[in-house]
Specification:
With about 600 residues, this protein is α/β, with parallel strands linked by helices. It has helices at about 10-20, 20-35, 35-55, 60-80, 85-110, 120-160, 160-210, 210-215, 220-245, 250-275, 280-320, 350-355, 405-410, 445-450, 460-470, 475-480, 490, 495-505, 525-535, 550-555, 570-575, 580-590; strands at about 365-370, 380-385, 390-395, 420-425, 425, 435, 445, 485, 515, 540-545, 555-560, 565-570. It has a six-stranded mixed sheet, sandwiched between helices. The protein has a four-stranded antiparallel sheet with strand order 2-1-4-5. Strands 7-8 form a two-stranded antiparallel ribbon. It starts with 7 loop residues before the first helix and ends in a 14-residue tail after the last helix. Bound molecules: adenosine-5'-triphosphate (ATP).
Length: about 600
């Protein structure tokens, strides 16, 4: 048997989603009080009209009381009209907030793989949000006046005559208890019904999507019987819900009709004995027939249905929008996911770097913090670093630690979340610093156009020197010289050839700082050595994201990004002092030398 799902997460979700609607809720409460006025006063006023007016031979007094009743009804009509506007201010934001939480929770689940989630889920769940919105709206329109009516009518009855109130109250209380107990069964069966409905949708979806395969395998019978079984189970659960809901009839009989019968049977005797007036008996009957019975019918009918649906649906939405609490991070109003990327807190020690006094042309990094997105964990945090003009710095570290991110920040193509990257006191910007990524871009045009892209006025002699320096002379000659047309560089040049052209282009550029982010990865080791040595000898600063031991060994200094504290030093120093660096060197050494990937002759 299905267990009733815990209702609390759903309730918490609804409460959280309704936060911020205090003002309209207060307005609804105020109008509800006005709406309740006739239910509170009607039986009592009718009793007075009879006892002090019509039965006492003073019809004018009786009419005056009835006029008061008319005024109360007019007020209620006004209140019923006025309450719609604040109701919409509760229900509409509820929908928006639920959708927001749901999409967030589903994205979180997809990113962190804590639950299976896809776009279909979001679509299905947003449909359920619409249902919840509709139900909350309906409950506010029905259950709210029902509750105030019940309370008001019972209060009015107790004031009118405590004995008659007891005659009504006892069977009513028993009926309410019976009803609440039966609600558990209704809710449980409704859960089964919802699950069965979803199963029908799932099975039907599978069969429709696999139609061709089913036909090819001759499995039509099997598929049809799967769908039939699911549909039969759904019908059975729907009938079970209907049977459980049928308890409403005895509840209304017990809590509504029986009290009327009791009043009518005992009323004349009570009046004759004295103490209870005829007006009070008529007033009590009015309370029960005009207010309590319809309220009970509503409570056991549509309100019970709405209520059980709301419990089931909000529980499901709560599960789908669930995002675990991250300490120190608020899930509300904008929930923050746990870190997606590998994060590292980077702070190069003062002795290592900050002691260097920056000079003109130095690249200066201060308290640099960067994250991909406002809610992602920082990839770099609090990094301080000075790269002196003319330096040759290799950045090393495990994959995903943030080397390329730092390269982008040094070149000014990424914007820090906090802190600065400056040259001569000015924030770096692309142009003064050239960043060469792993994927070299060669565009259709002449070889010369590509090489002069960053230095359009460069003379041929200077271009020759750049091409020779990075080791691209053979390639340029093979392509037909500077005027040779490259119509489809992506298709005709290998990755290594494209890297050589890009290296020559950056070498020839006026950039004072060059950042090579694995820009020689497709060259063989000899070609890489030529290019890196050329850049090291080039006036200006060189920063290389290193993927080989040789690159780190060639650099003047090495910045190791790993764990909480990055380390800076020469290759020899780090090899001797940093276990993490020694481990990385060991890893590089163990790797077989790469097969040349077409730096000169080879094609990918
Ligand atoms: N555009 C991006 N959006 C979100 N996260 C990113 C993005 N680029 C990188 N990251 C994440 O930031 C972290 C650092 O990435 P980065 O590419 O800087 O590392 P890396 O040390 O250069 O790695 P590798 O050596 O594999 O190139 C990684 O966890 C990565 O998944």
């Amino acid at each position: 048997m299905t267990e009733i799902a815990d209702w609390r997460p759903g309730l918490r979700l609804l409460r959280a989603a309704l936060r911020g609607t205090r003002a309209p809720v207060l307005r609804v409460a105020a109008w509800s009080a006005v709406e309740a006025a006739p239910a509170l006063a009607s039986g009592w006023v009718l009793g007075r009209a009879l006892d002090q007016g019509f039965l006492d031979g003073r019809p004018a007094t009786g009419l005056a009381w009835l006029t008061l009743l008319g005024v109360l009804y007019a007020l209620r009509a006004a209140a019923e009209r006025a309450v719609f506007e604040p109701l919409s201010h509760i229900v509409e934001p509820l929908r928006d907030e639920l959708v927001r939480r749901l999409v967030h929770g589903t994205l979180y689940a997809a990113v962190h793989r804590v639950r299976t989630a896809d776009a279909t889920d979001v679509a299905r769940l947003t449909g359920q949000v619409e249902a919840v919105r509709g139900i909350v709206g309906a409950l506010l329109r029905t259950a709210r006046p029902l509750a105030v009516t019940l309370v008001a009518a019972l209060t009015g009855l107790a004031v009118l005559d405590p004995l008659l109130a007891a005659l009504v109250g006892v069977p009513l209380a028993v009926a309410v208890v019976v009803f609440l107990v039966s609600m558990r069964t209704v809710i449980r069966r409704r859960q089964s019904y919802l699950a069965a409905e979803e199963r029908v949708a799932a099975v039907t979806g599978e069969v429709l999507a696999a139609g061709r395969d089913i036909t090819a395998l001759g499995a039509e019978e099997r598929a049809a019987s799967d769908v039939r079984d699911a549909a039969d189970a759904s019908v059975a659960t729907a009938l079970a819900v209907a049977r459980a809901s049928a308890v409403r009839a005895p509840v209304v009989l017990l809590g509504g009709r029986l009290p009327v019968l009791l009043i009518l049977l005992t009323g004349p005797a009570l009046v004759q004995r004295g103490g209870v007036s005829a007006g009070a008996v008529v007033g009590a009957v009015m309370y029960v027939t005009v207010y309590l019975v319809p309220a009970l019918e509503l409570m056991t009918g549509s309100v019970a249905g709405y209520w059980s649906q709301l419990r089931v649906l909000s529980g499901r939405l709560a599960a789908a929008s669930d995002v675990p609490d991250v300490p120190g991070v608020s899930n509300d109003p904008v929930p923050v996911p746990a870190p997606v990327s590998v994060s590292v807190s980077v702070s190069v020690s003062a002795q290592d770097v900050v002691a260097e006094v920056p000079r003109e042309g130095d690249l200066e990094v201060r308290n640099l913090t960067f994250a991909y997105g406002p809610h992602a964990a920082p990839v770099l945090r609090g990094l301080d670093l000075v790269v002196p003009s003319g330096d040759n710095l290799a950045i090393v570290g495990p994959s995903g630690i943030g080397k390329s991110t730092l390269a982008g920040l040094l070149a000014g193509v990424e914007t820090p979340l906090d802190g600065t990257v400056t040259m001569a006191g000015q924030p770096v910007r692309p142009g003064r610093v050239a960043l060469l990524p792993q994927e070299a871009y060669v565009f259709p045009g002449t070889v010369g156009d590509n090489l002069r892209y960053l230095a359009p006025d460069l003379d041929t002699a200077a271009l020759d020197r750049a091409v020779a320096a990075v080791g691209a002379r053979e390639l340029v000659a093979r392509l037909g010289g500077y005027d040779a047309e490259l119509t489809d560089p992506a298709g005709t040049l290998s990755s290594g050839e494209r890297q050589l052209i890009a290296l020559a282009r950056v070498y020839a550029s006026p950039a004072r700082v060059v950042v090579l982010d694995e820009a020689t990865s497709h060259l063989d080791m000899a070609a890489e050595a030529v290019a890196e040595t050329a850049f090291a000898a080039r006036p200006g600063t060189l920063v290389v994201i290193a993927h080989r031991l040789t690159t780190a060994a060639r650099a003047r200094r090495v910045l190791l990004l790993d764990g909480e504290r990055p380390v800076l030093g020469s290759h020899a120093e780090l090899s001797a002092t940093s276990p993490a660096y020694a481990a990385l060197v060991g890893h590089w050494t163990a790797q077989a030398p790469r097969v040349p990937q077409g730096s000169r002759a080879g094609r990918p």
